[in-house]
Amino acid sequence: MNYKFVLTLPKREDFRCEVAIDSDQTFAELSDFIACTLHFDPSNMPVFFTLDDDGNRKREISMFGFGEGAEGDDSAPLVMAETRIRDVINPSCMEFVYVYDVPTDEYIKIEYDGGYFADDDEVIPKCLLLTGRIPVIKSLVKAFIHKRTDDNLDNLFPPEPHVDNSRGDDDDIFADMESDIYGDEFDEGYDDEFGDYGSSGGSRTTFESLDNYLDTM
After folding, report:
1. Residue-averaged pLDDT of the chain
2. Is 96 within 8 Å of 30 (Cβ atoms)?
3. Is 58 helix (H, G, I), strand (E, B) or coil?
4. Model pTM score
5. What pLDDT shows up at residue 139?
6. How many angstroms separate the CA atoms of 190 and 181, rounded?
7. By CB count within 10 A, which of 22, 118, 183, 206 is most buried?
8. Could you tell me which residue, 75 or 146, shows the higher pLDDT?
9. DSSP 73-133
10. DSSP class of 64
């Protein structure tokens, strides 16, 4: 048998969704269908709660189990994938809530609205009606805003560049290169026609020809 459910929001009257689903299907299938229909993030971790006559949350139906309750305990949490809809919906439990955003406790109220007689070619579950502004998962929106803010701050204050010290400091590397190219005399300084260079006032040796230079080597 197929059940028809009406989904509404507690704080808004501009949203309404009607869903038909087989009573032998599970709450996991109902949750997946709601998430797909309302474009919720599939990585979100929603949870169902049955309600008592006063509208108080009574029994939890979650994605994962948290241990088994005592036999006959009708308040122990249930697992969505293991719980058929007809196992929960009965004359004493005709409505429940779907907490689609656990951190902010945003939820959709779901009410049983009778049976649904589907045609032979209809695929169930099925969305019969969807009107109004679709709710959003506020905690994910806030997390996205915070991440964008953090990224902007990182761009404003980039981290210090990493220096590979496995070969020593950059100054040491350049000093070694200069020593290899010019010899130790480079550090002593030299005088040229443009003035003194360095601190020791050394002079530069000149050669009249290339042969004289080669003789000194």
Report:
1. 77
2. no
3. strand
4. 0.64
5. 80
6. 16
7. 22
8. 75
9. -TTS-EEGGG-BGGGT-BTTB-EEEEEEEGGGTEEEEEEEEEEE---TT--SSEEEEEESP
10. S
